[in-house]
Amino acid sequence: MNPTLFRLPGCSQIALELADGVLHLTLNRPAQRNAMTQTMLGEIDAALDAVAPHETVRAIVLRGAGGHFCAGGDIRDMQAAQDAPVAGAADPLFALNRAFGRLVARVDAAPQVVIACLEGAVMGGGLGLACVSDIAIADRAARFAMPETGLGLPPAQIAPFVVARIGLAQARRLVLTGAALDGAEAARLGLVHFVTDEPEAMAERLREQLTRVRRCAPRANRVSKDLLLKVGAMERDALLDQAARSFAEAVRGDEGREGARAFLERRLPSWAAAD
Q1: What is the pLDDT of residues 111-123, one digit of tens each?
Q2: Please, where are the H alpha helices in the chain?
C-alpha cells in the first residue's frame, strides 16, 4: 500500500498518514512544541475511533512535528477555563483535565501496538503519552520532565500511568523535584526502550520494530495486550480463566490454525509473508 492521507473531517492539530497497516499520527502544533489543546484531544480520539475496529491497522506511531514530541498541556486552554464555575454549573477545568486522562487511558488500551518516537520536549502530558506506549524510541537529547509542580499544579491525570511505567519510587522523585532526564536516563528508568543518536537511527529502529510487529498475528496481539493490561486490575484466577478461554479460541481460530500450519511447513505465516 502506498502512503495515503488518512482524512478525518476538521482535523487541524494532528496529521495522519496510513501506510502498510500503520497509522502515523503526528501532533502538529510545532510553533507551540505540540502542546495539547481540547481540539487536539478530540482529533486524536476521533483517529483512534476510526482505526480501532480494523485488524489491518497493526500499529500506531505517535510523534511530534518540528523536532518536539509534546510540551504538555496548552496553558492558554487552562487560563480560558480558570474562573470558578457558577453554583451548580460544571467545572470546565475538571472537564478539561479529565478529558486528557481519558485520552491517555484510551491510548493505553488501543488494540494496535502503539510506538512513540520521542524527540525534543517530552513534558507533562507528553510524558504521560510516552508512558502508555507499547514501544518507546527516544532521541538521546530528548528532554523528559514533569514540570507541573513548578507551576503550582499536580500532574493529576498522568500520575497513575507514570507510576505504572517506572514505579512509585522514581515517580516520586520526578514529580516532587521536577527533575529533567535525557533519553539515556529515561531508558535506565524503564520509561523508554531504545535510545538513538540521530533521526536516521530512530527511523531505522522504528522500521525494525514495525517488522517485528508484523511478524505477530494481529488478533493474537490484540488479545495479548488486553490480557497484559488486566494484570493487577483483575483477580488472578479470574484473569487466568479469561486467558485460558482466549487461548482455546485462538487455537481453534484462523490465526492459530495458520500459525500451526506455517510452523509445520517451515514457512512464514500469512500475516508475515510480505515482510
Answers
A1: 999 999 999 999 9
A2: 38-51, 75-80, 92-108, 125-131, 159-166, 168-177, 183-188, 199-214, 218-230, 236-252, 254-264
